[in-house]
TrEMBL record:
Underlying gene: ga00502
Biased composition (Basic and acidic residues): 1-12
Region of interest (Disordered), residue spans: 1-24
Domain FAD-dependent oxidoreductase 2 FAD-binding: 266-299
Protein name, per record: Long-chain-alcohol oxidase
Segments forming domain Glucose-methanol-choline oxidoreductase N-terminal: 312-532
Higher taxonomy: Eukaryota, Viridiplantae, Streptophyta, Embryophyta, Tracheophyta
Amino acid sequence: MAVVQGDERDKVAAAASGRRSRGHPLLRGWRRDRYTHGMHPAQMEALRAMCGALIPSLPAEVEGHGRGDPPGGKDLERFYNASAADSIIPDEVTRPSSVAELMVTRCIREAVVLAWVVLWVLSTRVGTLLLCGRLCVSGEFPYVRKFSDMPLAQREAALQRWNKVRWLFPLRIAFAIVKILCHYVFYAMVNENSENPYWKAIGYNVEEPAREERKEATPSPPRSRPLDVGVVETRLLNDNALLRSLVGRGVTVKPSDDACHTVQCDAVIVGSGCGGGVAAAVLASAGYKVVVVEKGDYFTAEDYSSIEGPSMERLFERGGIFCTSNVTTMIFTGATVGGGSAVNWSACIRTPETVTREWAREHGLPVFGSQGYAEAMDTVCARLGLTDRCREEGFQNKVVRRGCEALGLKADAVPRNSSEGHFCGSCNFGCPTGDKRGTDTTWLVDAVSRGAVILTGCKAERFLFETNTNRTKKCVGLLATCSGDGGITKKLIRIEAKVSIAACGALMTPPLLRNSGLNNRHIGRNLHLHPVSMAWGYFPPENKLITGKCYEGGIITSMHRVTDRTIVETPALGPGAFAAMVPWESGRDMKERMRRYARTAHAFALVRDRGDGFVDGEGRVRFTPSREDVEELRHGLRQVLRILVAAGAAEVGTHRSDGLRLRLPPRFKKIAIAIKTLLDVSTMSVADLTGRLKEAEEAFEEPPASLQHEGKLYLLEEEWNSWRKNAAGAAEGAGMGADVAVHQVGHRLQTDPPAMNASAVARWVTGPESVGRSPRRSRLTLCKIKRRPRSGS
Ligand SMILES: Cc1cc2nc3c(=O)[nH]c(=O)nc-3n(C[C@H](O)[C@H](O)[C@H](O)COP(=O)(O)OP(=O)(O)OC[C@H]3O[C@@H](n4cnc5c(N)ncnc54)[C@H](O)[C@@H]3O)c2cc1C
């Protein structure tokens, strides 16, 4: 039993009582006692002015927007009135995890310098004139204003300009950094009561029934945790307690000098994620004394709060703020006991045979083609208890499934390591129901039951080598540091082992190897990230066919395979991540987007990339997808947009920075063109894009020549209207909206070949090769008649 002293005892008690109420204290609040950003007050003033323009205080009335959105009363008013320049951010005094703090502690050095310089420049009049031009000129002495003195409208206009400048890329990056952090803090941060004042207005709520049930069911005193028998939480222990705890768990501890404890074991493993956890279980069951070194902390289902800000802070690498060096790609990677498996999205897709064969043949790794590997995969799947059955799908997955069905595409059920009735919706912040079977509740449990020890809050700094007589090097263990809260180094631990395993993930293993003095040029190369491109679709609440909210239910329960390298799936985005990612056009637009948060479905195209990224160092990743990968991403994204449209979205868009989007339902041809245009991300200005859309629309005024061709069906307006009326009538009877009924009835009729006209109409709405004209604008609707293969084929 670990001996705990003074403060530490209080923390443990707090943690224990926290587990009894609403999650672990570390996962409930976002309080930091020290601030290290060191920004000058003048820079803070400029930063505050920027934040205030990004998220401004607005009058609450929202004319012409949010049609059909539920009235929010006071909450909505407070939401619209709130500004990011208010005292909570970026003021470091009242809110420690401020924009400035995150910027300095989480961004790479170059980005910090860049933002630092831009804020300096903006804190002066001359600098503001340089970056904002005429926008900062006033009619009164001294005629030029510094950024923080500019009126809101001018500041907003300046930000809009920076968001688009191609010729001044650094300014655009500085804008992106502040935009991401400011929105993340505004929507993910919580007060002492674990509440964010704006969540109600955007329809977000973390109090879910499952959590309530769990609370009542939780006995007092707290239950023992699955890994208690083997876990040593170094963050909570002083030196003596740490040593006693290690000895108590059967680890040999050698007498040490003041600088370092020395520990001996058979195998030391860095990282407790998917790789490290399985290795620990296998070695421990073979009778070896295993020590797992994990820099993150140990939390269980009882501890998880589902609250975005603090959960990201404690469970993810760099608190979830981790971008590639060019700020084009956001990366998430777990940093807690269980690694990625504790926070991932539960999809457990077996490696396809085509891939294992490729690894075996083309990369000279025969093990992947062996029977042994296939058996190992079976064993892992069995231990994780995979199922692809799902009792109820969440909103986003319903959208994907429905869109696929309407388009005649195949939507596959996704195997997951949780039960078929699992619906918690927040596995990405650690599953609060304990239903998800991550490494922390499976393989690591097996490992500790066979005597393995897990050191948490313990970071491997470097491997230790001895030179053999034949001048080759032999790894003899590693050196690790245990940190106290606040990152103060408490103690070095030297772990001597016959076998050392680096399993700290694709992003953290290379820096560890380099820090250990290894200089093979391949270390850090060939990084594959499986990049994703996202699109969104807004489904107004009155669309009763697809019910629910975007954060509810299993995260990935259905998917569509676009090609053998590209799949379409759905993400888990808390309000902070959502706001950080969606494009910013103006303060009002962003608030309106956020107001629709709960009913905005996201889906992404994920590509098995060919391009090779590079891990430069800790938190430094270079990644640019290859040309083919970009093509695959665009193709996948196009499919995502079609799926969203076909599912009945009222508005769709991507994450391109100028925020171009499409309100529906326009004519299908226009959608096809617009989807293509939406994807032309590289070179066009907004003016060009608007022009191109208009051109396309005008060109479509005339009936196409192909009208005369055989194999086409002419539908008169009356025919269309009567069909639509029937569909709507049927829908009304079933309590649905007419727009979605078109899809549903159409889908039913597609499997019924004699109903050719209706089928064709459905294809006008949903089909890929349709070239229809809106019945409103013309008396003719043109559809290709092609018998659709029966669904599923
Ligand atoms: C949000 C999210 C969603 C995901 N969704 C899915 C999904 O649905 N399906 C899927 O198949 N995959 C998913 N993944 C990916 C999957 O989780 C990872 O591929 C997998 O966890 C990688 O396993 P690993 O053992 O290599 O590393 P990880 O699981 O990342 O484990 C590495 C561990 O090492 C620790 N560590 C790092 N450096 C050190 C150090 N120096 N000292 C001590 N400890 C260290 C880290 O804290 C971490 O706990 C997701 C990942 C994330 C982050």
